[in-house]
Amino acid sequence: MSHSVAAPAAARTDDADGSQTVLKKVLGASFIGNFVEWFDYASYGYFATVIAAAFFPDIAPGSALLATYAVFAISFVIRPLGGIIWGAIGDRVGRRTALSWSILIMSGATTVIALLPDYHQIGIAAPILLLLVRMVQGFSASGEYAGATSFIAEYAPTHRRGLYTSIVPASTAAGLLAGSLMSAALFWLLNEAQMQAYGWRLPFLLALPLGLVGLYIRLRLEDTPRFRELEQAHHLERTPIRELFGNHGRQIAIAFGATCLNAVGFYLILSYMPTYLSTEMGMGHTESFIAASLSLAVYIFLIFLMGQLSDRFGRKTALITASVLFILLTVPLFRMLDGAGFVTIVLIQIAFGALLTINDGTLPCFLSEIFPTRVRYSGFAFSFNAANALFGGTAPFVATWLIGATGSKLAPAWYLVGAAGLALIAMLLARETAGKPLAD
């Protein structure tokens, strides 16, 4: 007759405390690292009009802005390839290694942007160098979002995975908010000549110290328990991308479709909107950035609530709800922007941000749950970055082009409706993943 001996209560408490301590460190490292990445990446969008004048001074302002957004869009071309490379590193060598290198590369590239000579100094070489550095940024960013989410998902308890992974979009928005606030402050403090001379460079100079802090925190963590289990059992994939495309095509298609709304919505609502308000609606730079900052603050608050609700009601329910609401409400909300006062514009942006949180607070967890551990990083990174390359990075460019081609300020709204339609179709074909163990 065998007897089982219960662990002492003190030991069980210590284990729980230790697990909670590690989880807090994981969440903190993911937040700070992702914050730094997206503060660096988004600063380009917020200073688009100034960068346009610095690097494309000899063409009309509208065309210069279009050229600046073209550089923004082209830098996304490398992201699917980056997703494959970072995914291979994350699935073969480790999540921590991939995340540490990605933040180091992003910080270095962003610092280089701050030091780039402009068109008046070196001519056509200036926008070419800007494009090359932006492509390095795009390569780095392609490993961040997927890696940070996978890292948290593999540590988080099943019943709270949605809540904990929502810290990734929250930290992304916090990076945008910091960039927006800094932009508002600089446009308010500096005149046009000062902004052209050096003001736009200041946010990019912060990249290196912020990046080194994020790198230090990440290097102090162990890799995830699930990755270490595969590593110890010698079950790591030698070629994750071959396994991914060979056996997980359905998941890739669903993940790509579901990400379309996130890609277009994120870059139109959170990055492009200040430029839209200033160039199309006649709002001042400072006011447009303040409006964006207020909506971002509400977005960050709501994103955690949406992650928690997805734990309760399911990822599929939340993502379908987001798609339907965007299809129904996007065009009416855009119509209300025309001629609206400052308070009304802020309320409309908050409404857009709230709609976006239903998708963004749920999507990262969903994408980490539909792929098994051995190809989780690769599957998430490739599908997420492919959708962002086609629809996200091009969103400001397409929106600006559509307005010029159609003469309608509502053109970006219809583009967003189309993305919501694609996401809806994808989610109707998906299975529910909430409340289940991670796929293995």
In short:
The protein has helices spanning 9-46, 48-55, 61-74, 79-92, 95-115, 119-122, 125-153, 161-165, 167-189, 192-197, 202-205, 207-219, 225-232, 240-247, 249-279, 285-313, 315-337, 342-360, 363-369, 376-392, 395-406, 411-428.
Description:
This is MFS transporter. It holds the Pfam family Sugar_tr. It is found in: Cell membrane. Helix content is about 80%, strand content about 0%. By secondary structure, it is mainly α. It has a single domain (about 25-240, about 250-430), classed as MFS general substrate transporter like domains (Growth Hormone, Chain: A, Up-down Bundle), CATH 1.20.1250. The longest helix has about 40 residues, at about 10-45. The two termini are about 35 Å apart.
Strand content: under 5%
The named CATH superfamily? MFS general substrate transporter like domains
This entry's quaternary arrangement is single chain
Q: What general outline do the C-alpha atoms trace?
A: globular
Number of helices: 22
The tally of structural domains comes to: 1
What do the pLDDT scores average to?
A: 83
- Helix/strand order: HHHHHHHHHHHHHHHHHHHHHH
Largest sheet: none
From the helix content, strand content and strand pairing, which structural class follows?
A: mainly alpha
Per DSSP E runs of 2 or more residues, the count of β-strands stands at 0
Task: Output the CATH topology.
Answer: Growth Hormone, Chain: A
CATH class equals Mainly Alpha
User: Which architecture per CATH?
Assistant: Up-down Bundle
Task: List the uncertain runs.
Answer: 1-18
Rg over C-alpha atoms, rounded to the nearest angstrom: 22 Å
Transmembrane segments: 41-60, 66-86, 98-116, 122-142, 163-190, 202-219, 252-273, 288-305, 317-334, 340-358, 379-404, 410-430
Keywords: Cell membrane, Membrane, Symport, Transmembrane, Transmembrane helix, Transport
Membrane topology: Multi-pass membrane protein
Organism: Paracoccus simplex
